[in-house]
Amino acid sequence: MMAGIMSYFGGRRDTKQAARDAIVGLRQQLQMIEKKEEHLQKKIDEELKKAKANAVSNKAVATQALRRKKASEAEMDRLAGQRLQLELQINTLESANLNAETMAAMKKASDVLASIHGNITMDKVDSTMSKITEQREIANEIAEALSNPTGTMEDEDELKEQLAELEQETLDERLAGAEHVPLHIPAGAHQVEERRKVAVEDDEEAQLRELQAALTM
Known about the structure:
about 90% helix, mainly alpha, 6 helices, about 220 residues
């Protein structure tokens, strides 16, 4: 089988067509056998009908009908054997043809793969991948550099000084605002203070009166 398949590739191009023609011829022969079988089946049915009709009235006619029926059945058996052989041969040719076409497709795909790979080797692949990795790292470094601020350390120090001045100005303004805020004393506190002053005054008057009385004695 394999030798036939391999010769298919090295032989002439009409081998493939010859296989198709052989399959067509076998199918035509198969159709003829099937028609012959249909004809014989009709004869068998007719002879059986005739034998039944004459089984009582005319046994000789019935017997001849059964013999013809038996001969047709034997022919049917031979045709069935031929039909089976034809079907097997058709299946074999179709399978071989399919195998040959599959091998041809695989060979073509193999040739295409070989052409695609060409001079590609694993060393070249590794080298290319290394270059790609290197370039990717360079691109990442460039992107990182572009995304960082470009100011110098002197600029950073100046910004810090300005921020400190702004903070101090803000604190000074808050303190200045706090000095001008009027002191709010609750009403109850005023009353307590007034009472304290009155009590002090009364105490002073009492002490003065005691001093005057002592002098007059």
